[in-house]
Specification:
This protein is an alpha+beta fold and 90 residues long. The chain has three helices and five strands.
Length: 90
């Protein structure tokens, strides 16, 4: 399922226009993104949590040349599924 298909399901369920449903999905995604960019966390009870994890600097290998390279520290978004979500997928 992609964003448009999710928007269509939303518009069918709640009788929004398709453009309103797209706006709602876009709003949710941008709100989660903005909160993570600030270093926050978004927890959706039963579904899961979106968090930012820090990756330490480390040594890596360029697969093309075999040369060892320094990989800089970075922050990456992670999703931790909630118990209800994990149980539903089993």
């Amino acid at each position: 399922m992609n964003k448009m298909e999710l928007s269509e399901k939303l518009s069918e369920k709640f009788t929004f226009s398709k453009s309103q449903a797209v706006d709602i999905v876009d709003f949710i995604i941008s709100t989660i993104t903005a909160e993570l960019a600030r270093g926050g966390e978004v927890a959706l009870t039963g579904f899961g949590s979106f968090v930012v994890k820090k990756r330490e600097a480390r040594m890596g290998v360029n697969p093309k040349t075999g040369e060892r390279i320094q990989i800089l520290a970075s922050s990456v978004p992670k999703f931790k599924p909630g118990k209800m979500f994990k149980d539903a997928v089993k």
